[in-house]
Write a structure and sequence with these properties.
Glyco_hydro_b, Class I SAM-dependent methyltransferase, seven-stranded mixed beta sheet, binds S-adenosylmethionine, methyltransferase activity, SAM-dep_methyl-trfase, methyltransferase, about 290 residues, single chain, Rossmann fold
């Protein structure tokens, strides 16, 4: 059965369990890995066998491929958290947004980034979910990612949301190298958003390892923050619990622990009252 990709439908997490998640990405029903879903599938009222469009299969090398039952178009538009997003199914098993950020952090970012004079930088910005939230608040935005393709994708998402004219800088670079240059140039920022991967590659193939590179990156942020208005640090790395992230912000920025919020990033499931845990965050705001 063909499905219209013209009607804009939302992202929905239908169910999760047995290390998988069942999602509707607009009109398309897909199954992906969910590393922390250690409980049985609920299933009802969302059967896992009916009308599946694609199942992502992860391969040993870290990437993967889609096993399609009904191949979706190359891209289509979905809605999520009051934003429009271009959705695509990538070989890596990504869909173009990280839903856990939406349910946990996007409204908070919009509330913090509420001053048109404020400079906000989103490092590891991917397709721009957090950058859109900052732009909606009114702040000037610098969106950075090492991958040119996702920076283009983020620009398209800004256009979809009528934010193409918002004061935004688009940077394809390695996060550390760019911040080192910004320190030398004497630039200043007030809001910082970073969701670093466990392992990644910079624009010139620089290797990023969270355990080695995160603290030096935060030290650069400390030099650029004048004054620090807010910082949001999140990640999906096993072992980096909310208290680990809180302690990092406390130690590097000398912020009172009692003023640092933290928790697990989660996505609500439609099949039950359960939520799918998907990473951790810690955040601090002057407000
Ligand atoms: C977990 S995703 C961030 C998701 C984003 N927070 C969101 O909610 O849409 C990590 C991103 O970091 C980027 N990346 C990896 N290594 C990098 C580096 N050294 N410098 C800058 N970006 C990097 C990847 O290209 C990827 O887009």
């Amino acid at each position: 059965m063909s499905k219209s990709s013209e009607t804009v439908l939302p992202y929905r997490l239908l169910d999760a369990g047995e290390e998988q998640k069942l999602e509707l990405v607009g009109p398309y029903k897909v199954i992906r890995q969910a590393a922390q879903a250690f409980w049985p599938k609920m299933g009802e009222p969302h059967p896992w066998r009916d009308a599946i469009d694609g199942i992502h299969i992860r391969t040993n090398k870290g990437g993967g491929y889609w096993d399609y039952k009904n191949k979706p178009p190359a891209e289509w538009t979905i809605s999520w958290q009051n934003f429009l997003f271009r959705a695509k199914l990538t070989d890596f098993g990504h869909i173009g947004l990280f839903p856990e950020q939406g349910h946990t952090n996007l409204d908070w970012i919009t509330e913090q980034a509420n001053d048109p004079e404020m400079e906000v930088i989103n490092l590891f910005g991917y397709t721009g979910g957090s950058s859109l939230a900052a732009a909606r608040g009114g702040a000037r935005v610098t969106h950075l990612d090492a991958a040119k393709g996702v920076v283009t994708w983020a620009r398209e998402n800004f256009e979809l949301n009528n934010l193409a004219d918002h004061p935004t800088r688009w940077i394809v670079d390695d996060a550390t190298k760019f911040l080192e240059r910004e320190v030398r140039r004497g630039r200043r920022y007030h809001g910082f958003i970073l969701d670093p991967p466990t392992y990644g590659r910079g624009a010139k193939n620089q290797i990023w390892r969270i355990e080695k590179d995160l603290i030096p990156l935060l030290e650069l942020i400390k030099q650029l923050a004048d004054p620090l208005h807010f910082i949001l640090l999140s990640c999906h790395t096993p072992g980096y619990t909310e208290w680990c992230l809180r302690n990092i912000l406390h130690q590097v920025f000398d912020l009172p622990l009692t003023q640092i919020e933290g928790g697990e990033m989660t996505v609500p499931m439609e099949s039950s009252e359960c939520v799918l845990p998907s990473g951790t965050y810690a955040r601090w705001s002057k407000q």
